[in-house]
Amino acid sequence: MLLTVINAGKSALNEDQACCTVVVARRRPMSYCPPSTPSKTPTAKRRISLPNGEGLGLQVEPSKLEEDSEGLVFHYWALFDGHAGSGAAVVASRMLQHHIACQLQAVIEILRNLASPPPTLLGEEPDSNPYLQGNTPGPHRALTRAASLRGAAGAPGSPSSTPPTPRFFSEKKVQHESLVIGAIENAFKEMDAQIEREKQVYNITGGCTALAVVYLLGKLYVGNAGDSRAIIIRNNEIVAMSTEFTPESERQRLQFLGFMQPHLLGNEFTHLEFPRRVQRKEVGKKMLYRDFTMNGWAYKTIEDDDLKFPLIYGEGKKARVLATIGVTRGLGDHDLKVHDSNIYIKPFLSCCPEVKVYNLAQYEHGADDVLVMGTDGLWDVLSNQEVAEAVTSFLANCDPDDLHRYTMAAQDLVMRARGVLRDRGWRITNERLGSGDDISAFIIPLMYGNRQP
Fold it and tell me: Which residues form the signal peptide (predicted)?
């Protein structure tokens, strides 16, 4: 189900790394979480392979898939696209799933009890807080003036003889899937913190984007930090399951940070954006610009400060943050600086993923319905529609009972993105340039997720 094409010469190890496994989030103390990077595959994780021995599918019996006597079991797939070395990608491919399991430990019992909403306070009885139940507080729980102004129906000193009813009498409706989303988000942050702690000890170089999928309790959770992409192909329709985070897509977040903390720009960059570099001779003239508050453009009078290099420079795949890096979310890069300066880029790079949820139980999936995950080497040259057409066409010509069909479809997809070597380099359909990057892809069948416990 996974094929990686190595772009020789970029790194001693392939900068694209992947992981595919089944993990048990056990009911143990939090010390279960590995304290440091392992030198070999940890024994804490459990693997279940496809009959062809090449990876994981969703064909495990549902009763065994979702529940384990020791905790919850989840399927896990992840792709990591490294840059400036393979170190961060290698470490993340070995460790991120354990951080997810560690975060899920704290909410295992809550996730098992889907009939009751998650408690606001762990260890507190539901009726112990009168403000959450609409009860009138007793003398020992009197409202302060500030709380009264915020929560009471009437103002203090109201002539009404009826005690004011607290306005906030009910809890927010937090769904169980929000706990899984929060666990994945915190796991990414913990993974990033671990890379920072251990980068010197284990010589962890560079950084990496991260795209991780967790299959738990009948739902797919797709967490993405970077510019890899995941789509679902269902009944010839395409469902986007991730968003690329680039200097252009996150322009306003980056500009706002530069505006709020200008020292991060080192007096060399400006958070404002212009259509092109401003020249000295244009000071005093009016030029198009925009900042973090704007989607449109306006004119401003050019000042000396506007001559600084823009925080975001370039367009499309050539856009860079601080003239250095083309992705804005991922893991690692703690030591990355602007060339020939002491300006760190990490404050502008977020490790937090966007997590999207897909409920497998809502649809009856056929044998050709799949989740496709790929690093940017795939999506740089093929669109969602081209990928969907290629995968659908390939699977349609395979025996539905052939368990190798998904692996072969992944191989075909990657080779389509690489193309054919001609006199003028690698070429794909219509003589377009093929991908010159590392390419990794998962094709994961969804039909096995139809069966529920």
Answer: none
pLDDT tens column, 93-113: 999 999 999 999 999 999 999
pLDDT in tens, 5-54: 766 566 778 899 999 999 999 876 544 455 555 544 433 333 333 323 33
276 CB neighbour count, 10 Å cutoff: 9
d(C-alpha 440, C-alpha 93), whole Å: 13
How many CB atoms are located within 10 Å of the residue 386 CB? Answer: 16
Domain boundaries, the chain: 2-113+175-245+352-450, 251-326
Measured CA distances, 409 to 76, 213, 233, 448 (Å) = 20, 19, 13, 18
Q: Rounded CA gap, 61 and 200, in Å?
A: 43
Q: Are 427 and 420 in contact (CB under 8 A)?
A: yes
Count of CB atoms situated within 10 Å of the CB of 62: 15
What is the DSSP code string of 384-410?
HHHHHHHHHHHHHTS-TT-TTHHHHHH
Rank 9-18, 120-129, 144-153 by mean pLDDT and report only the highest.
9-18
- The Cα–Cα gap between 250 and 409 comes to 33
What is the per-residue pLDDT for 60? 43
Of residues 124, 120, 122, 123, the one with CA closest to residue 168:
120
Q: Is the pLDDT of residue 125 over 80?
A: no
Pairing of strands 207-216, 2-5: unpaired
Using H for helix, E for strand and C for coil, what is the string for 259-326? Answer: HHCHHHHCCCEECCECCCCCCHHHCCCEEEEECCCCCCCEEEECCHHHHCEECEECCHHHCEECCCEC
Q: Which CATH superfamily groups domain 2-113+175-245+352-450?
A: PPM-type phosphatase domain (3.60.40.10)
E-strand spans in 146-243? 207-216, 219-225, 229-234, 237-240
Q: 411, 419, 413, 417: which is closest to 54 by C-alpha?
A: 411
**Cα–Cα distance, 147 to 421 (Å, whole number):** 71
Query: Which pLDDT belongs to residue 137?
Result: 46
In DSSP notation, 81-146 reads: EEESSSHHHHHHHHHHHHHHHHHHHTTHHHHH-TTSPPPSSTT--TTS-HHHHTPPP-GGGPPPHH
How far apart (Å, rounded) are the C-alpha atoms in residues 33 and 30? 6
Token reading at 177: 């899937």
